[in-house]
Amino acid sequence: MLTVDRYRCGYCGACVGVCPEMALELVETWIEISPECVECGRCTKICPTGALELSDKTEART
Amino acid sequence: MRCDVVVVGAGPAGSMAARHMAEKGLDVVMLEKRQEIGDPVRCAEGVSKTGLRSLTDPDPRWIAAEVRGARLHAPDGTTMVMSEDRSGNEVGYVLERKIFDRGLAMQAALAGARVMVKTRALDLLRRPDGSAGGVKALRFGEVLPIEADLVIGADGVESKVGRWAGIDTSLKPKDIEVCAQFLVYDPAVDDDYCEFFFGNDIAPGGYVWSFPKGRKLANLGLGVLGSRCQPGAPVRLLRQYLERNRPEARVVEMVVGGVPVSGPIERTVADRMMLVGDSARQSDPITGGGILNAMKAGVMAGDVAAVAISDGDLSAAGLMPYEEKWRETIGRQIARHYQLKEFFSRQTDEDLNSLMHSMQSMDMSQMDLRGMLKVLIKLNPKKLWELRNLVV
Ligand SMILES: Cc1cc2nc3c(=O)[nH]c(=O)nc-3n(C[C@H](O)[C@H](O)[C@H](O)COP(=O)(O)OP(=O)(O)OC[C@H]3O[C@@H](n4cnc5c(N)ncnc54)[C@H](O)[C@@H]3O)c2cc1C
Asked: CATH for A2-54?
C-alpha cells in the first residue's frame, strides 16, 4: 500500500506528474491517494523529500 | 456558470493566456486551486532579461536582482564564464515569483478575466460528442460546474487536463528533474553571477545552482534526474552540499519541485482543449527553465483561441494553428535541448571535466548556450558526434 508522510511532504506535485494512473492529487498542502494506485513505485522513487512509501513490498516494480 | 474559455491554473502560462484572451474581448474564467497564487514557490526564479522584456513590461517589484552573467563549474573545479554582458546591460533577472505570478494574474484580471482562487478543476464536463464542455470544479468545498466553449490546461507539472482529454502527459522518471532548493544567506554568494556546478556525486543527471537575489541571498538548489533518484535524494544531497561547500550558509526558506524534461510531447490540442506551459511539457530539458516558454505558449494559445472562437471551429483541427506555432518556435529549441539532455545525463565526471578543459583557451564570455555548444562540438568532434545535427 502507498502511504504519504504528510509531515515530510513538500506538496510540490512531482509525484502527481509521474503517476501513470492519475491516482494522486495535490490539494493545497497534502497529497490524496485514490484506489486506482497500482503501486508501481514511480512516485516513491522521485519524491524530493522521500515522503511516499510503499509498504508490504521490498522493491518497486519500475 | 458559463464563459467562453476556462483556464485551469494561474501560473505564468495560464495568466498570459487569460490576459490575452480577455484583451480580445473573450469572456474568460481562470481557476487556481491554491488560495494564494504563486505560493508556495516551485522555482529558482532565473529568466533572461531580453526574453522577459519581449513579453511584458516588467514591474520592478517582480525583480529581486539582476545578474551580469553565468559561471559554470566542472566537477574538478574548472570554471568558465558564459554570457557575460560587458555593456552593463545585464543579461539576467532573478525574479520574486510570489510577486511575479500574482502580478501576471492581476494583469489578466484587469483585462477582464474572472480569477477564482481556491477553486480546483476535478474533471471535464462532457458534451454529447465526448469533447470538453467546460470543467467541473470544487470551489471552497462546493462543486461548481463551469460551462465553456474551450478549456485551456495550464495546470503545471501535475497536469490532468490533457489526460482528461485523452492525452497521456504522465512523465517517466527519466523525463522529470526533481529538485530541492534553499533560500540562503551566505557571505560566499556572488551577487553578480548565476552559478552552475556539475558532478554526478553532487547532482546525478542535473546540477547545483546558485541564483543570487541580492545582498548575499541566493536560491541555492539542485536537480536530480528522476531515473537516477532515490526517495528523498534531492533534499539529502542539498543538505550534504551545504555542509561540505557552504559552511556559513543560513537557510531561511525551502522549496521542492519537479520540472518536466521530456522534450516536446506528441499532442497538445484535442477537441475544445489546449495545453500550455509545464502541462504541455514545454520547459527546457537542459536548463529546466520554463517561465518564458510558458508565457510564450500562453500568448500563442490565446491568439489561436480568439480566432477559433470567432470562426466557430474549436475542433482539434481548428486549434491546430497553436500546435504548429509553438512547435515552429519554442518547440525547436525544446527538441534540440532534449537531445542535449539525453547526452549530458550520460557523461561521467571525467567526460564533463575534459569537455570543460577543452574550452579553457577560448573566450566564452560572450556566448550563450548555443554558441558554447558550437565551440564544444568543433573542439570535440568525436565525443560529440551524435550532437552534430544540433548545430546548424
Ligand atoms: C526547483 C525548480 C526550479 C526552477 N527554476 C526555474 C528557473 O530558474 N527559471 C525558469 O524559467 N523556470 C524554472 N523552473 C520551471 C518553472 O517554475 C515552470 O516551468 C513554470 O512555473 C511553468 O509555468 P506554468 O504556468 O506552466 O505552471 P505553474 O507555474 O506550475 O502553474 C500551474 C498552476 O496550476 C495550478 N493547478 C494545477 N492543477 C490545478 C487544478 N486541477 N485546478 C486548478 N488549478 C490547478 C497550480 O496550483 C499552479 O498554480 C523551475 C522549476 C522548479 C521545480
From this structure: 3.30.70.20
At B382 the pLDDT is 86
Is the pLDDT at B40 greater than 70? The verdict is yes
In the predicted structure, residue B90 carries a pLDDT above the cut 80 = no
Band of residue B97 on the pLDDT scale cut at 50, 70, 90? very high
Q: Where are the domains of chain A?
A: 2-54
Q: If you measure from the C-alpha of residue B370 to the centroid of ligand 1, how many angstroms do you get, rounded to a whole number?
A: 25
Torsions phi, psi for B215 (to 5 deg): 50, 45
* Residues B132, B57: Cα–Cα separation, whole Å: 34
Q: What pTM does this model have?
A: 0.96
Question: What integer pLDDT is reported at residue B377 of this predicted model?
Answer: 87
Q: What is the mean pLDDT of residues B121-136?
A: 97
Strand B132-139 relative to strand B142-153: parallel, antiparallel, unpaired? antiparallel
Please, which residues have CB within 8 angstroms of residue B28's CB and are 6 or more apart in sequence? Answer: B3, B4, B5, B6, B7, B18, B21, B22, B108, B112, B113, B114
DSSP B43: S
Nearest CA to ligand 1 atom 35: B9
Distances (CA, A) of A16 to B140, B165, B171, B178: 22, 17, 9, 12
| CATH T-level fold of B2-43+98-169+265-336 | FAD/NAD(P)-binding domain (3.50.50)
Ligand 1 atom closest to the CA of B209, numbered from 1: 8
- Cell readout for A45 is 522513487
Residue B256 to residue A16, Cβ atoms within 8 A: no
Q: Does the beta carbon of A30 lie under 8 angstroms from any beta carbon of chain B?
A: no
Burial track B270-281 (b if 16+ CB lie within 10 A, e otherwise): bbbbbbbbbbbb
**Domain residue limits, chain B:** 2-43+98-169+265-336
Residue B178's nearest CA partner among A40, A29, A58, A52 is A52
**CA-to-CA dists, residue B372 to B206, B275, B389, angstroms:** 18, 32, 15
Closest to B368 (Cα-Cα) out of B275, B287, B266: B287
pLDDT in tens, B301-329: 999 999 999 999 999 999 999 999 999 99
